């Protein structure tokens, strides 16, 4: 039983914590409150000496449908209505980038169980996990181009380690929807399972049975190997996004998206 008034829930079973995106009526769409809820839940899990692994999942029909559409009208205003995205208030990241990067930077492994859809920012959140288990019917999209913007929640820093450059360009330029099989082929998910939550829990239990010190050390080492230019990429995401948001073409993308029609750029 979930409490829909709480956007993120934390549950614990032995040495495994489960962090649940809990806006099922909105397909777990991203709001600042959801991000700070994830942050608080992850901090609590990592502060618990008994927790050795985390399962991240979404309640209801989807893992995460991306940024809540109620934010897009504000995004189209000068300054995006979201403040200065280049301000670093979470280390080398802003709040929205932190939504994805927090999982990568957690001291313990995080396994995402993905079903329904993982769109835009929702996909970027999943990319921050150490592993991603997908349902066969999962659909994912680097959807930002639909709204006239670029991925700016750590997606560029994370995708570059998982997919070839031409694949990233294809997904970014087209905003096409792909299925779980194609996501696996492209490297965006780790494996496909009929019951992704059961498989994620199984993986988490296996991780939790290992030496806690060795697992934490392995994650630190793996992150260190992959961190080259990460801070530069995060800042570039924010700078480029600020150049686009609020321009006439981005305004048209937002209007078209909200009205359910193709955008017109002539």
Automatic annotation (TrEMBL):
Keywords assigned: Fatty acid metabolism, Isomerase, Lipid metabolism
BP GO terms, sorted: fatty acid beta-oxidation
Pfam families, sorted: ECH_1
Listed SUPFAM superfamilies: ClpP/crotonase
CDD domains (UniProt xref): crotonase-like
Molecular function GO terms recorded: isomerase activity
Pathway: Lipid metabolism; fatty acid beta-oxidation
Keyword Lipid metabolism recorded: yes
Highest taxon above the source species: Bacteria
Similarity remark: Belongs to the enoyl-CoA hydratase/isomerase family.
PANTHER family to which the protein is assigned, alphabetical: DELTA(3,5)-DELTA(2,4)-DIENOYL-COA ISOMERASE, MITOCHONDRIAL, ENOYL-COA HYDRATASE
Protein name per Swiss-Prot or TrEMBL: Enoyl-CoA hydratase/carnithine racemase
